[in-house]
Write a structure and sequence with these properties.
alpha/beta; D-Maltodextrin-Binding Protein, domain 2; 2 domains; five-stranded mixed sheet; three-stranded antiparallel sheet; 6 helices; 8 strands; 35% helix
Length: 205
């Protein structure tokens, strides 16, 4: 979604220098407290903070994805025991939704999972496409691959996984007009993306 946010923002503020940095999740909040970032985006459980303003933008759906020729991709129903011996392709430990993924499987009694850990969603997708394992990713990151038939979602719902894309800034920071313009652009783009998706899901007669 971010390219569309940047495009809208630049169209309204053509003279502003926009710097985007990818930062390890555990350092994101600190960049706001240190003043090295104006606005951050996080995928996490609902965040409560006394020092930060946090605005949930969208709840994200996470799924398990595999290559079309993966044995589990042929099944219409999966049981927990079907995952024994499988390799899961995930983010590194410390990532909030990786922690929730681990927690959900431990609750179900599986505590000996084989992982391959990556720093990027792109690496996870490519390894899943190659048949190396099962990818755990947000749906939005796999839309193109699913449409092309390179990945298929597995029929498995991950329980108690409530992850939101959240936008945050320091509560005590003065928000200049150009920062406020960026915040508003992010709100508009993500709201319009969700409206478009809902229209596709619920076409009018």
């Amino acid at each position: 979604r971010l390219p569309a946010v940047f495009q809208l923002y630049r169209s309204r503020n053509p003279g502003v220098r926009l710097i985007f940095r990818s930062v390890p999740n555990q350092e994101l909040k600190q960049t706001l407290f240190e003043g090295t970032a104006d606005v951050v985006f996080m995928l996490d459980e609902p965040i409560r903070s006394s020092g930060l303003a946090v605005e949930p933008l969208q709840e994200e759906t996470f799924r398990l994805f595999a290559a079309p020729d993966h044995p589990l991709a042929k099944r219409s129903v999966l049981q927990l025991e079907d995952f024994h011996g499988e390799v899961f392709l995930t983010n590194e430990k410390g990532c909030p939704y990786r922690t929730m993924f681990d927690r959900s499987f431990e609750k179900e009694g599986i505590d000996s999972i084989t992982y391959l850990e990556f720093q990027s969603a792109e690496a996870i997708k490519q390894c899943a496409i190659s048949g190396i394992g099962i990818a755990f990713l947000p749906e939005i990151t796999t839309e193109a691959e699913v449409e092309r038939g390179e990945l298929v979602p597995l029929p498995w719902q991950i329980p108690d996984l409530h992850v939101y894309t959240q936008m945050s800034w320091h509560k005590d920071k003065w928000l200049s007009p150009i920062i406020l313009s960026f915040i508003e652009a992010a709100r508009e783009v993500i709201a319009s993306v969700e409206e478009d998706k809902n229209r596709i899901r619920h076409p009018r007669d």
